């Protein structure tokens, strides 16, 4: 028979119903059952699902199907006769009682195990069958491409030994349809290469209370593992949790681009909060044994409990971070370090845990991450592994903390490297959890952008008798990049002082000065520069950090900058001074001098940016306060009398403090904006502080 006839008959058989093909003579090539190629037989059946209704001839050793449920659905596969029922689920029994199993090797897919990937079917059983098969047999490679739903946790890898299949490819998305403590777990997959992307979607949305899944993907025992990319969103815990607690081992792994969204708690929106109703202190002043016991009205999820002492878990009260040591669920109490400010007898706290990526333990280290992109996560990257990791690019936006270094205050961490990290809108940028001194803690930040020094905090510092924190900003040693600024440890770039008057001279290119003011008195900074020296060597800028004895290490007095005689500050016509006050953390300034003798003093950090919009829904007078009231105020209350918005001038900065006030509420009465403008329904006005008072700059109808 000619080749042309063979091809024609094969094509004719493709798609013929099972009922008609069962009795037809079939052109085929004989081969040994154990070694024949899937293409060595011309017996082709429409779908795998219909095989149980077909009696296959005894001399047939192999056949192919064009799909699992229907032709072309992705489940097309080659099967060979098995001597008995196989122990795996890559099998089918024909109507004559014979058992058939998937050919090896061939590229296997979840669709060969009954997955539909149609957006409505629960594919949990099919997916687990697929992954179990990869653990047992070396298929050559597997293709995971598709979008699937699961109501059960999925395990990738054998319970012991190594995974048989060493190569996976494809872009796979799995969405949870039920509460799962750990959605996908990789175990014992050392040397596995996933050349593709795994996307995991938990339950819920941005709001923490809506999420019911714990961790996204968990790695246990996966040394020299490599995956092209991971994406996790809507999890209470960690999007990517790499456990190095023995007997697991996750050393020398390579992780591609990792994206995590809305994971964990602690960011500005969608976090888990509680009220603490009472507090009591244990331990002594300055001791690492300090504990404050807080009675709360809401405890964190129970999956937190086994992580305490291993994975950094915090609460924040105001702008201060406390390490969470223990939870007593019988008495609804938290044990935190250090002491909570003794003046705070009750109040509100925010839980900070979980988030983007967490390498943890003594057997999780020397990992490489091509990139970590975390948005609205509790902690973008928690480095709690003993041996450090390299993160090529860290993007942390709107997170509770961008980086947490160390597992707990008493632990060590040999550090790692963050190259080109970017910080934007985080509550905290760097938290130094461990109190270990170098070299037991040694991290390096290279070419970072957007970091605010006032958002860097050492969680391991205890409170002293005077209710202050023990050298918080001098306890960031071991974090290179921050210390290179001359901020956190004494060095040649760092001059310490407590004088009420200080001269800041631009006399070198790496000028950094740190001043600590121990009271609420004002401090005067006299600016000085040698124009000839500046022109010759480029000494035209420097940095100044001023800390104080406030609750958040902030200076409590006014900081006054004075230009040299005949020179001006910030472009003023005759102004030779500029002042700042009202800080919530250490004040960081950038100072530079233009050739014309015009000094520029810029407050880089030290004040907390307000929200973008403030809504006023009450029928009463209100006060707009600089640095706490949003720049856009929308008044949507219905007025029953004339009302006023009072414009507070304390802490206002000329040319910077401004408001847009929009009135959308009803009522026949007017809303006075600082006596400058009376707004009726659907009108607005813009006001600006000119240095002594607010002035009207614009107004109109909506």
Task: Please describe what this structure looks like.
- By secondary structure, this protein is mainly beta.
- The protein is 5% helix and 40% strand.
- The chain has four helices and 51 strands.
- A hairpin with a 2-residue loop joins strand 18 (314-317) and strand 19 (320-328).
- The protein is elongated and about 105 Å long.
Spatial shape: elongated
Q: Main beta sheet, described?
A: 13 strands, parallel
Subunit organisation of the chains: single chain
Secondary structural class: mainly beta
Using the CA coordinates, give the radius of gyration. Answer: 33 Å
CA(first)-CA(last) distance: 85 Å
* Helix percent band: under 10%
Number of strands: 51
Identify low-pLDDT runs.
Answer: 1-36, 484-496
Mean pLDDT: 84
Individual helix count: 4
* Share of residues in strands: 35-45%
Short description:
This protein has 702 residues and is mainly beta. It is 5% helix and 40% strand.
Strand and helix map with partners:
Blueprint: H1 3-13, H2 18-21, E1 44-45, E2 62-65, E3 77-82, E4 91-93, E5 99-102, H3 124-136, E6 142-143, E7 146-150, E8 154-156, E9 167-176, E10 182-187, E11 193-201, E12 215-220, E13 226-235, E14 238-243, E15 254-263, E16 273-282, E17 291-296, E18 314-317, E19 320-328, E20 333-337, E21 347-352, E22 355-361, E23 368-375, E24 379-385, E25 390-391, E26 394-397, E27 401-405, E28 413-419, E29 422-424, E30 428-432, E31 441-446, E32 456-458, E33 479-480, E34 501-506, E35 512-517, E36 523-529, H4 531-537, E37 541-548, E38 559-562, E39 568-569, E40 577-580, E41 587-593, E42 598-605, E43 613-616, E44 622-624, E45 632-635, E46 643-647, E47 658-663, E48 671-673, E49 677-679, E50 683-689, E51 694-701
Parallel strand pairs: 1-2, 6-9, 7-9, 8-10, 9-11, 10-12, 11-13, 12-14, 13-15, 14-22, 15-23, 22-24, 23-25, 23-26, 24-27, 25-28, 26-29, 27-30, 28-31, 30-32, 31-33, 34-36, 35-37, 36-38, 39-42, 43-45, 44-46, 45-47, 46-48
Antiparallel strand pairs: 2-3, 3-5, 4-5, 16-17, 16-21, 17-20, 18-19, 18-21, 19-20, 37-41, 38-40, 41-42, 47-50, 48-49, 50-51
């Amino acid at each position: 028979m000619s080749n042309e006839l063979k091809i024609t008959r094969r094509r004719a058989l493709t798609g013929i119903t099972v009922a008609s093909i069962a009795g037809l003579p079939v052109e085929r090539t004989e081969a040994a059952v154990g070694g024949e190629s899937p293409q060595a037989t011309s017996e082709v059946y429409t779908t795998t699902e219909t095989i149980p209704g077909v009696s296959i001839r005894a001399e047939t050793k192999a056949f192919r199907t064009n799909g699992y449920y229907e032709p072309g659905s992705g489940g097309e596969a080659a099967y060979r006769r098995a001597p008995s029922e196989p122990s795996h689920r890559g099998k089918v029994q024909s109507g004559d009682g014979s058992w058939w199993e998937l050919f090896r090797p061939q590229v296997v897919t979840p669709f060969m195990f009954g997955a539909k990937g149609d957006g409505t079917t629960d594919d949990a059983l099919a997916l687990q069958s697929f992954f179990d098969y990869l653990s047992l047999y070396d298929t050559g490679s597997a293709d995971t491409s598709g979008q699937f739903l699961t109501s059960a946790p999925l395990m990738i890898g054998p319970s012991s030994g190594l995974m048989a299949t060493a190569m996976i490819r494809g872009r796979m998305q799995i969405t949870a349809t039920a509460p799962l403590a750990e959605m996908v777990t990789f175990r014992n997959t050392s040397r596995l290469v996933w050349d593709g992307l795994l996307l995991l979607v938990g339950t819920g949305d941005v709001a923490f209370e809506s999420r019911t899944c714990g961790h996204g993907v968990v790695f246990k025992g996966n040394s020299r593992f490599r995956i092209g990319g991971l994406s996790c969103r809507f999890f209470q815990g960690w999007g990517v949790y790499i456990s190095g607690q023995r007997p697991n081992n996750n050393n020398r792994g390579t992780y591609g681009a990792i994206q995590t969204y809305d994971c964990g708690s602690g960011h500005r929106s969608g976090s888990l909060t509680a009220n603490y109703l009472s507090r009591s202190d244990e331990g002594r002043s300055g001791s690492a044994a300090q504990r404050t016991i807080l009675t709360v009205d809401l405890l964190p999820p129970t999956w937190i409990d086994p992580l305490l002492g291993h994975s950094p878990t915090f609460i924040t009260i105001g702008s201060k971070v406390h390490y969470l040591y223990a939870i007593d669920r019988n008495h609804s109490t938290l044990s935190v370090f250090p002491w909570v400010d003794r003046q705070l007898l009750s109040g509100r706290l925010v839980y900070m845990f979980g988030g983007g990526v967490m390498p943890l333990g003594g057997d999780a280290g020397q990992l490489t991450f091509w990139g970590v992109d975390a948005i609205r996560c509790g902690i973008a990257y928690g480095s709690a592994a003993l041996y450090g990791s390299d993160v090529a690019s860290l993007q942390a936006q709107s997170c509770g903390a961008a980086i947490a270094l160390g597992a707990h205050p008493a632990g060590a961490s040999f550090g790692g490297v963050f190259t080109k990290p970017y910080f934007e809108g985080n509550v905290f940028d760097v938290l130094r959890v461990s109190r270990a001194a170098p070299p037991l803690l040694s991290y390096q930040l290279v070419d970072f952008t957007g970091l605010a020094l006032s958002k860097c905090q050492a969680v391991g510092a205890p409170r002293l008798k005077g209710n202050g924190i023990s050298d918080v900003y001098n306890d960031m040693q071991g974090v290179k990049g921050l210390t290179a600024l001359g901020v956190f440890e004494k060095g040649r770039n760092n001059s310490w002082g407590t004088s009420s008057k200080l001269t800041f001279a631009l006399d070198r290119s790496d000028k950094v000065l740190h001043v600590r003011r121990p009271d609420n008195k004002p401090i005067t900074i006299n600016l000085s520069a040698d124009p000839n020296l500046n022109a010759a060597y480029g000494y035209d800028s420097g940095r100044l950090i001023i800390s104080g004895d406030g609750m958040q290490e902030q200076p409590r007095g006014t900081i006054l900058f004075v230009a040299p005689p005949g020179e001006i500050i910030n472009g003023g016509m005759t102004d030779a001074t500029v002042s700042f006050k009202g800080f919530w953390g250490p004040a960081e300034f950038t100072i530079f001098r233009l050739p014309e003798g015009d000094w520029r003093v810029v407050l880089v950090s030290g004040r907390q940016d307000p929200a973008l919009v403030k809504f006023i829904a009450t029928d009463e007078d209100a006060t707009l306060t600089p640095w706490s009231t949003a720049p856009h105020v929308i008044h949507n209350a219905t007025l029953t009398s004339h009302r006023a918005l009072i414009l507070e001038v304390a802490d206002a900065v000329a040319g910077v403090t401004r408001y847009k006030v929009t009135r959308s509420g009803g009522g026949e009465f007017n809303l006075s904006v600082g006596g400058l403008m009376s707004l009726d329904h659907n009108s607005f006005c813009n006001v600006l502080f000119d240095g002594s008072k607010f002035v009207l700059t614009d107004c109109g109808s909506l």
